Predict the structure.
Amino acid sequence: MIASRAFAGKSVALFGLARSGATAARALIEGGARVFAWDDNASARDGVPKGATVVPFENWPWNEIAALVLSPGVPFTHPAPHPVVVRARDSGVDVIGDVDLFARFVRPDPMKPGLAPVIAITGTNGKSTTTALIGHILSLCGFDAQVGGNIGRGVLDLAPPGKKTVYVLETSSYQIDLAPHLAADIALLTNLSPDHIDRHGTMERYVAVKAGLLERAARDGHVVVGIDDSYSASIYSRLAANDGAEAVAVSVGKVLGRGIFVIDGRLYDAWGQPAKEIGDLNGAANLPGSHNWQNAALAYAAVKKLVGDSHMIMDAIKRFPGLAHRIEDVGRIGKVRFINDSKATNADAAARALACFPNIFWIAGGKAKEGGINDLAPFFPRMCKAYLIGDAAEAFGKTLAGKVENVNDQTLERALEHAYEDAAHSAVADPVVLLSPACASFDQFRDFEQRGDAFRDQVKKMMAAKASAGALV
């Protein structure tokens, strides 16, 4: 764990104690701060470390508090700031998050190099795979890759830096909003499409938050931008024209005179040199599809200067084991293949999985996001049938009516059972039962991980039951 000494001898408030909140409290206490903590959820308050004063925020000594460390899940600006945020602003108290505490630790003087390189990854889709892939490449190339943030461990739960440490952080828009001091050595933007508008108010505000991570990158580092959408392309053009960190463009399907690009699965490097083929991404078994080619190209651009050897990077990419909940191959029962893509929490993310398979028995639904699934119409011909769950089931059914046969199953368990039976008895030779919800999970599950785990566990039980009954698995 990293001890945060930024507020040693001062009083700090902490609101929101789930996941990273308790770690932030321990980090502050170890760093010599006096911590006042609260969470509206009584069970979350049980995990507060010894030494913190647990009282409702209305009773905090606001005139003594140096900063409020806010959980990224607590509304900061939209749809309305949480009352604790309003109270902090009225008291002249800065509102930050645990990523900002990490940033102050790793680079205490913004004008000097940090204690270890930081690679920060953001974007609407692909950031988890890109983050995990970067960590994987660095580990295979001899670095101590500390991977965390919005994936895996919280940033303050990572190990203190050693000689070969590189911090690889997935950063959500919520976390960026609360991390004004984060100046990454390498900042990376995968892509942008409408998401979390309820949290940021407008698409313009969402884009601005994401762009802020790149704009604050260390001047002696570089930024990597996937330019295949108009929002990201505009950000790249602005950054490339500014006197800041070097900007590197990444594209799939477009030849670049300068940058990193992929054509027909072949990775090319034209960054500071004539275009040179690095390798064939079709050989990366766990990175299927053009969206994963983008992830690989982004990861290559992120690590190139650190690793130096393009052949080592390409070899590591081909050895990537894949990411849980993102086009994760769970197994087979007979001819039926099961794919867990629970991390597809919006239509754009689901499109990436739908593009990978021809005969899909699709499980979708949950807490819908703006736009629904209208943009997925080009993939409807790939669907044999849809099994709809959660709050979005009725709305998704109306969108699919007359185009894709569908049934409102409501629960994941029922949908999986029906999808398997239909796929097993279908005439297609290679049916795929695909959980790619195009929705958030919060109507029925704690998060997308719990939803994906439930899908995986049920598939494993089905496989075991079929095996014991003598069925082909």
Observations:
- Residues 11-96 form a domain with the Rossmann fold fold (CATH 3.40.50.720).
- The mean pLDDT is 95.
- Residues 129 and 323 are 6 Å apart (CA to CA).
